[in-house]
Amino acid sequence: MIRKVPDIQLIRFLKTMALVSGLFAIFICFLIIITYFQLQRVDPLNTPVLKAMQEQLVRHPGDMALRQQIRELDLLARKSFFTSRSQIRAGGYILIISLLLLVISLKWQELIRADIPLIPSGEEGNFWKGRMVSRKWIAAAGIVFVGFALFLAYLTHKIIGEQQVMSTPAAAVAGAGRAAVPGPASAAPGTVRADSAARPPETVTGQTGVKEETYPTVQEIRANYPGFRGPGCNGTDYHRNIPVSWNGASGKNILWKTEIPLPGYNSPVIWGDRVFLSGASENVREVYSLDIKSGKILWKTDVSKLLKNTGEPPKVTVETGLAAPTMTTDGHRVYAIFANGDLAALDFDGKPAWSKNLGLPKNHYGHSSSLIMFRDLLIIQFDQTGGAKIMALSGKSGEKAWEVQRDVKVSWSSPVIVNTGSRYELLLAAEPYVTSYDPETGKELWKLDCISGEVGPSVTYASGMVFSINEYSKLAAIRLGSPPSQAWEDNDYLSDVPSPAASGPNLFVVTSYGTVVCYDAATGKKNWVHEMGNSVYSSPVISEGRLYVMDKKGIMHIFKADKSLSVIGEPALGEGSVCTPAFSDGRILIRGNKNLYCIGK
Fold first, then answer.
1. Which of the four pLDDT bands, split at 50, 70 and 90, describes residue 195?
2. Which residues fall within 8 angstroms of residue 540, CB to CB, at 6 or more apart?
3. Which of 44, 317, 479, 534 could be 551's S-S partner, Cβ–Cβ 3.0 to 4.6 Å?
4. In the chain, where does the domain assigned CATH 2.130.10.10 lie?
5. In angstroms, how far is CA 89 from the centroid of its own chain?
6. Which overall architecture, per CATH, does domain 174-600 show?
């Protein structure tokens, strides 16, 4: 006999909900799995059609219609790629909700169900045993299938790291295009003493008889190269007799090249006759010092041995790596930070001064923001998911001087320090703001809502204007004042990795797909546009009135930094490179994929 069901309508509803939820969950699983494996085969920048169009553009650089078609196709491919990625992640959440509804409806039925099937006499054991076995197999298969789909949804945010194109740079090569340079560099020009490049900042004796360090002067900073993109991370160099011709294959003007033991996308740092850079693998994080005259590695220090139990290495992209941030120096010590948050200060003999771990950065490309010095303060931009901040540590002791929480999204750009005439400003870019701080105290000076997306490029400054840029956002020109305001914007040529550079009336933008654009800095008018033919991850630097741009194949494109297009030369390194060059009097130092090159006469 079957007992009377007290609420047959509710049970029917729950059965229907369970059936619909189950079928819908299976459908979502199929979509997630299919889309995931499609994404693994997709490279938006290397489709046959796009490659053919790019080759055609190299043969016909003046074809504006073809150039526009390439930009539109590139944009559509990228949007499709990242839309699919978002759909997988959303599908994962929908799948979880469907499973919850399925479990709730089944459990509810079990609690209120009143009907018990009448089993023929003598068959009770076989009936229940068969039913139990069937349910176990169905449940096991369902768990494996659903678990696999959820696992793929979880991994989706890492797919981007395996592609050769990214939405930002934080994507591409974060460290190459984003590293920042230390120093109060944009002060009024001063006379550089002939011996200032070879000597460290002075150490003076105070009233107590204890020797006190002094931070480097503007002249000393400009005579050296204490970080990426020149003084203040502003894309301007002040050295002389910079070469414009070399050939890596034949050895022409190659003074030396040295293989670096571990990979890294950071740029060289120069002080006096020392060159510093870092490299890392999953288990080892090293800092190197080389002699600038011979290229000999003078010492290497394993930072990973200074900090025990810092946890598992972060999952980073192959293009960002584990040593993307460029180091910095104050002439007394060198400072290095790695993708896992390890931070170390070493003296010029490679001996540790202090070290600490800032915590594993929470971002899906790996930490790439480089270090910068202001006087005796080491400044670190630590914009990560759920806890963005900017902090300053004592260069001598590592003690925290100040820290400011930031209401911004994750970014990979690096800080810039400039003298705007009346004060020094620390400039940062991260969605949605370009923000200015007092580098001595961390006090916010101003901010402007003008940038979006996962920001990789740093800002640049010239003649009272700040310029920010990001792909799928805009190029924004900010005129400083009380308060600062946006002077103009442009959406035609945007960068996801290389930072812009400016000099006087001219602003130079380099896109990752290989276009150089010169703008009138005051009005936004395009003075000229040049297609280089190869993609670019390094950032441009202006030196001796020339614009130096290194492409990924190792070809340096040298232009006259003027409103009229003039190509000076295109010397080849003979090795691929994604790192921005460093400059010294009569020399250029370029980090290739394996070797560090010194170029001069």
1. very low
2. 235, 498, 499, 500, 501, 508, 510, 516, 547, 548, 549
3. 534
4. 174-600
5. 22
6. 7 Propeller (2.130)
